[in-house]
Protein 1
Amino acid sequence: MDFELQEEHKLLVEMVRHFADKELTPVAPQMDAQEEFPVNNLRKMAELGLMAMTVPEKYGGSGMDTVSFSLAMMEVGRACASTAVTMSVTNMVAEGIHRFGNDDQKKKYIPPIASGEFAAASFALTEPWAGSDAAAIKTAAVRDGDYYVINGEKVFTTSGAYAGVMMVAAVTDRSKGKHGISVFLVEQGAPGLTIGKAEEKMGQRGSNTVSLIFEDCRVPAENLLGQEGDGFKIMLADLDGGRIGIGSMACGVMKACLEESIKYSKGRVQFGRPISDFQAIQWMLADMATELEAAENMVLQAAWLKDQGVRFTQAASMAKLFATEAANQAAYKAVQIHGGYGYTREFPVERFYRDVRVTTLYEGTSEIQRIVIARNILGKL
Ligand SMILES: Cc1cc2nc3c(=O)[nH]c(=O)nc-3n(C[C@H](O)[C@H](O)[C@H](O)COP(=O)(O)OP(=O)(O)OC[C@H]3O[C@@H](n4cnc5c(N)ncnc54)[C@H](O)[C@@H]3O)c2cc1C
C-alpha cells in the first residue's frame, strides 16, 4: 500500500494550483456576482490539458489517469467551484464519448472538447418530472430515415448554452422502460433545439444551468451513442466517474474553507487573544482538517479503483456522499469562525457556503448515493 503521490501527480498539482491561484481565484468573486460564464479560463484550461484528461492522446485527450483528474479537480474547486463543475461535466462527457462512442464519434467530438474549441460539453438527463427517478424521462427520439427526431424538455443542464456537444438521453422504445432509453450526441445549434432561460442559482453562479427544449430536433442517426436501449446504462456508468469529479471539487472547497478559517482565526483578536487560541475554534478547525483528510482519501481511492479497471460504483457513491456532506459542514464552520464577517461578501467563505450547497444535490442526491451504497452492500446491484 502506498499513500505517496507519484512524481507526475505532484507536478500536475503544482501546475494546476499555480494556474488556479493566478487565473481563477482573482475572478471567482466577480463571476459569482455577475453570473459570468468563464469562457476564457476554460479555454486556457483546455490548453493545459484539463478538459479531456482521461481520454487517450490519440483522440486529443491528455491520456492521464483518474487520480490526476481528481487531483486537478481539487485544485480548481479550491479556487472556483463554478469553473470546477464546468470542468467536471465536460470531462465526464469526453470520457462518455470515448468509452461508448464509435471511432467516428470520438474523432469528431473529443478533439474540439479537449482543445477548447468547444468551451464545454453537456450531459442532459434530468427532466421536470424525472430527477432522482431518471428512468422516468419522457423526451422521445423517433427514427426517421437517416435521422432521429427528438421531442421533449431537459432541465438543469450544466453549460447547456455554451456546450459544443451534449449527451442527451431520450426514449426510443417506451415499452421497454429504462431499457428503451438511448443517448444521442446533439450539437449546439441543432435544428429544433432551443436553449431555455438560465437558472438564477444560490451558488456556482458562474456556471451555466439551462433548460433545453427539443421540438422536432433532427439529429443524424450516426449520432446515436452506443446501441439503441443502452442509454440508461451509459448515463449511469458515466455518472459514476462524474461523482468522483464532484467529490473532488467538494474536497477543494473544503480545503479553501479550512485555509481561510486558519488565516482568519489567527488574525482576529477578541478578549485580547487571537480567536485561534480558543478551544471552541480549534475543535472546529480540527474537525474540518480531519474530515478533509478522510474525504480526500475516499475520493482518491475511488479514482484509483477506477484506474484499476475494477467496479467502483460503490466507492464513487461513498466518496461523493462523504465529501459533499463534509464540505457543507466545513463551509458552515468556516462562516461560524468568521463570525458576522463570514456572512458578508467581504470574505470568500460566504461564497463557499453557497457554492458547496448544490454538491449534495446534483449527480445524485445524498439520498440516492445512500440507495446505491445500500443496494451494493445488500447484494442487490
Ligand atoms: C446547479 C445544478 C446543475 C445540474 N446539472 C445537471 C446536468 O448537467 N445534467 C442533468 O441531467 N442534471 C443536472 N442537474 C439535476 C440534478 O441532477 C437533479 O436536481 C437531482 O438529480 C435531483 O433531482 P430533482 O431536483 O428532481 O429532485 P427530486 O428527485 O424531486 O428529489 C427531491 C428530494 O427527494 C429525495 N428523493 C427522491 N427520490 C428518493 C428516494 N427514492 N428515496 C429517498 N429520497 C428520495 C431526494 O434525495 C431529494 O431530497 C443539476 C441540478 C442543479 C441544481
Note: Strands lie at 120-124, 140-144, 147-158, 163-171, 181-187, 193-198, 209-220, 224-225, 269-270, 273-274.
Protein 2
Amino acid sequence: MEEALKELLDALRDDSTRVDDVWLSKLFRRHNRATHDANRRVAKRRLLPFYLSIKANDPERWRSWNVDPELEAKLLRTLRMKPRRTASGVATVTVITKPWPCSSDCLYCPNDIRMPKSYLHDEPACQRAERNYFDPYLQVRSRITALQDMGHVTDKIELIVLGGTWSDYSEAYQIWFVHELFRALNEFEGPARAGDGPEARELRYRRSGLTYRTDELVKRTESLQQEVTAGARTYNDAIRTVLRSQGWRDAELWQTATLDELETQHTLNENAEHRVVGLTIETRPDLIDEQSARMMRRLGCTKIQMGIQSLDEEILRANHRNVSVSQIARAFSTLRLFGYKIQAHMMCNLLGSMPAADRKDYLRLVGDERFLPDEVKLYPCCLVESSRLGREYAAGRWQPYSEKELVSLLADDVLATPSYTRISRMIRDISSTDIVAGNKKTNLRQMVEQSLASRRDEVREIRMREVATSDVTSNDLRLDCVPYATAVSDERFLQWVTDEDRIAGFLRLSLPHEGTVAMIREVHVYGRVAGIGSSEQGGAQHVGLGRQLIERACDLAREAGFEAIRVISSVGTRRYYASLGFVSDDLYQRRVL
Ligand code: SF4
C-alpha cells in the first residue's frame, strides 16, 4: 500500500495532470500483480484511509513522505470517492430515529418492525442506524468518519432526520435527538462529554440488553414480524411490544434533553469544525400547525420533508392516508410563512390510480398556488412484502406500471417541473430483494434522463441544470429572477445561470401577502465543498455568488415596500449572516431594509 501511495505522490508532485482514472488503474494493477489476498489489494477506496491513518498515528513515517498542503490537496482531489455526494456544496448526513408507532397506517407502507415505520432494515442509512442502536450521536460519528475516509471535506453538514413521522415522537425525544446530533458534531474533533463518549454510550446500550447484532435482532423479532406480515398484528401493536423490552425502557428514561441544553449545543456549533448548514425533518402534513412549525424551528430545522403522495381525495382515501387535500394546502402555507424549504414526496401508481391521473395530479402539485414545493421526491409505489398492499395485489386490485409507462410518466413530470423546483430523487433506496412487485431498476433516473436526451433544452427543473463538479467563473453567469405567486406570498427565485441555462446558485425569497417582513428561505451555491475559510478553488462557491444573491434579495424586498428581511439561517451559517448585517431575531436573523 505504501509503495503505491508513494508512487502516486511522486506522480502528483511531478505532473498531476497525467494522474487520471486510467493512470490509477495501471498503478493498482501493477502493485496487485503479486497479491492474492483480496483484503490486501491496493484500491482507490483503501489508499486515502491508509494515508489519513498514517498521518494521524505515525507522524514520523508521514513526514518522511514530504507532503505539503498543496500536494495533500491534490491527493484528496484524486482519491475523493463519489464526488456527486458533496457536489451540491455540503456533506449530507442522514440519521434514522428509533422504531416507533406511526399515527397513520398507509396501505403501501412497509412494516419492518426492526425499523421506524416505512423504512427497511437493509436500506443503507437504516443499516448504519441499526448498527448504532438508532443513537443520533453514534450515527453522526460513524457517518462523518466514513465521509472523511472517502476524502470528503465535512465542515459543512446537512443533517437529514428520517424515520416514520417525526411529530409522533415525544417532545423530550425530539429535543434529545437533535441535541445529540449537534453534540456529536461539536465533539467530533475533541474530548467527549465526561462519561458519555462513544464507547460509554455503546456500553450503556449493551448493558441494558439492546443489540446491534443482526443474528440476534432476527431471532428477537422473527415471530412478531411474521405475524405483522401475515396481517395478524399491526405494526404499531408489534412495535409497542418491542419498546416494552428492558433496553428501550431504560433508554427512554435517559434519552431526554431540555431546550436550554440544545441551545447551548447550537451556540457551540456556530464555531465548530463541523457546522450544520441545514437540518431537515420528515413529517406528515396533517401534523403541521403553527405550534409544531415553531417547535421545529427551535430545534434548528430549515427544511421539511412532507409525505404528500397524492392530491386526489379518493386516492388518498383508498390508500388509507388519513390526510385531506385542504390539510396539505394548509401545511404548505404554514411552512412557507415560517420560511422553511418544502420538499414534497409524491407517489405515482398508488392503489386506484392510472398514469393519466398521476400526470394530472403532478401538474396540480407544481401548478396550483396552494402547493408549489421547492423540492420533490418522486417515489413510484412498489410492493414490499410486509405492506398491506400485498393483499390488494393478490386480489388483482393493484398492479405495478410497466417500465415503459413509468419512464414516460416520470419524463413528463420532469418536463412539467418549473425552474424553481428540484427533483431530488426518483426512487427510494429499497433493495431489489425486498421488492415483490414494482420498479427494481436503481438507474431509473438515468433511464428517464436518457429518454429526455433530445428534449434537454425543455427541462427547467433544477437538478438536471446544476453545474455540479464542473468549475464556472462569475464571468460565465448572469442573475435571473423567476417570479411566481403562491396562496400566501409572492415568491422570487433568483438564480445564477450560464448562457446554456446551467444553474450555479440560487436564492428563494418570499414576499408574504401580509406583514412588512420579507423572508429568505434558502441560499444555495453549487461547487465542490471546500473548507470554511479555505482558499481552495473548488467551484462556484468561492466567487461571492451567495452574497450577491442576498444583496439582490434585499433590494427586491425594499422595492416591494418591505421594512425588513429575515433569513431562516441554520445554526452553522449564523456567523455568515451576522457578517452581512443580520441580527438575531427570535427564531431567525433579520436585517432592516
Ligand atoms: S404516514 Fe408515513 S410512516 Fe406513517 S404509515 Fe403513512 S407512509 Fe408510513
Note: The two ends are 59 Å apart (CA to CA).
Protein 3
Amino acid sequence: MRLDGAASWKCLRIVSLTGTWSAWLMVVVVLGGCGAEPHAEVDTGPRVASADHHMHIQSAEAALNLDRAREAVEPPPEGETLDPSPTFGAADAIAALDAAGLEGGVLLSNAYMFAMPDVEVTDELAKVLAENDYVAEQAALFPERLVGLCSVNPLADYALDEIERCGQDSRLTGLKLHLANSDVDLRNDEHVEVLAEVFRRLGELRMPVLIHMRTRNPEYGPVDVNIFIERVLSQAPELPIQIAHMAGWGGYDAATDAALAAFVEAFDQGTLARERFSFGLGAVVFQPEAADNDQRAERVRQSNQNLASRLRELGLDLVVYATDWPAWPPGSEPRTAIERNLELIRSALPLSEEELERVLANVGVLFDGR
Ligand SMILES: [Zn+2]
C-alpha cells in the first residue's frame, strides 16, 4: 500500500508524561474503561498529517495481559484496583484517524507482551499467534488505509518461526520489535547474536521493521546504537526500518538525544543509507505548561528545543508523525487522542510552520509495502 499524504484536520490540544520503559503501560492506566465512540465526520481543511505511524490495537486476551503487566510493573496502591484495559480494533483506529483528518495508520500487535519477562503467561505461544492473527484480520478490514505489523519477543524460542509465519500472511506488512519490553540488552553478546539472526531473516523475507530500540540498560546511548548498526542492521542492509520514539522510549532526555545523534553521524559518514529509514515522533514531545513547576517546564522547553535541532540535523524528510495511540497523549479519549497530539506538537515543538507541515506530510518507509 502507498499513501499520497493528502489529508485534512480540525481543532486540538495539550499533554505530558515521564519517560520510562514502562511509559506505555503507565499511560494506558489513564485510559482504562474508555470505549470507542461513533465514527467521526472527516472535516475538509488544510493538509496536515498523512498518517499516524504508531498505533496499538489489542484483543480481549491482550487487554487482560496488559492489565497483568501493569500490576507487575506498576502495582496499584494497597486496596486499589486498576480499571480494566479496553480492547481496540481497526474501527477504533479509523475513527481516531478520521477525527484528526489523517489518512493512514500503522497498526501494531502487542503479542510481544505475552513474552514479557515480568509476567507469567500460560499457553504463551498460542496467545502470541492469536494476537498476531487478530492484527492481520483487523488491518485487512481497511486495506487502503492501514498497515498491520505482527510482533514477537525476539528472544523467545519460537520467534523465527512466528516471523516466518507472519511473513507468509499477505495481510501483514512487517514486524514490530520492542527491546525494552522484551528485555533485550544490546550490551549482551548473546542477545545481539539472536537479534542479528532475526534481522538476517527479515532481510530475506523483505519484511520491514518498526523498532522501539531503547533498552532497560541504564547506560543506554550511542554505544548501543552503534552496536545495533554494526552488528544487527548490517545483516539486512536494504530493509526498511522505522525507529520509534526517536531512538528513545518517550520523552526526549539526554540519552535519547545522544542515541539519535549516533544515527545522524552514521548517515553523515555514509555507514547507513538514509532512504530506508523513518523516525517516529511518538510520545517524544511534552507540553511545558503541563509541568508542575517552572524548573521542570524549562527543562521540557529545552528538551523540545534540542529535539527540534536534532531533527534538522537528521533531515526532516526522515521524520514521520506518530502518536503511540491510544495511550498518548495521556488522559485523552481514544477517538480524539490523535488530534490532541497534533495540537501538542504544533504548540510545543519549536519547528517553523513550514518545517512542521513538511514533517506531517511525510509518509514513512512502512507504507512502501514489500
Ligand atoms: Zn508504542
Note: Residues 24, 54, 56, 324 surround zinc ion (CB under 6 Å).
